[in-house]
Amino acid sequence: VGLSVSLLNGAARCIAIQDVDTLPELGAPVDYGDCAVPTQLSSEIECYGWGPPCAANAGGVVAMTTEHWHQVNGFGNTYEGWGGEDDDLNRRLLRNNLLRGSCGDFCDRDDLGFNYQTSGLIRRPRKGRGRFICLDEASHTPRTHGDKDQMREKLTEMDMGSPRWAS
């Protein structure tokens, strides 16, 4: 729905999705127009030690062209609460050969699954250009995690080649 509504207002080159509890650090040079390939703009997140949660994460703040969003058939909206939608997007990007990043500036973060041989990751901006702070739970409506069994079932279906998410 969000993509369709944004396109009604004219030709948008980049469309970004953003977790509501993740905000750019004051003064951070985050480029919301950086979307030639799918890009996780939130590459340095305060509550994850100024890195992404893990190498395979494709959530937080992600910018893609309208063509990429159409290619992956949008962003999953069948997950209740939080959890699963980032993994879902990562699988959609993988299935459509849109994961063109490497470990980049995070090659030294083997604790997060990065190493110099890592490929097939979402692209991330250079260090210093993806800094985001996290709102604490007291700053917004408390989040509830969705049903983990249902989440795993949906992700497993996708791994097994379900056409459910195909465009």
UniProtKB/TrEMBL annotation:
GO terms for cellular component: Golgi apparatus. Residues 40-98 form the Galactosyltransferase C-terminal domain. Pfam families: Glyco_transf_7C. One of its GO terms (molecular function) is galactosyltransferase activity. It comes from the Eukaryota. Residues 139-157 have a biased composition (Basic and acidic residues). Residues 139-167 are annotated as: Disordered. Keywords: Transferase. GO terms for biological process: carbohydrate metabolic process. This is Galactosyltransferase C-terminal domain-containing protein. The lineage of its organism: Eukaryota, Sar, Alveolata, Dinophyceae, Noctilucales.
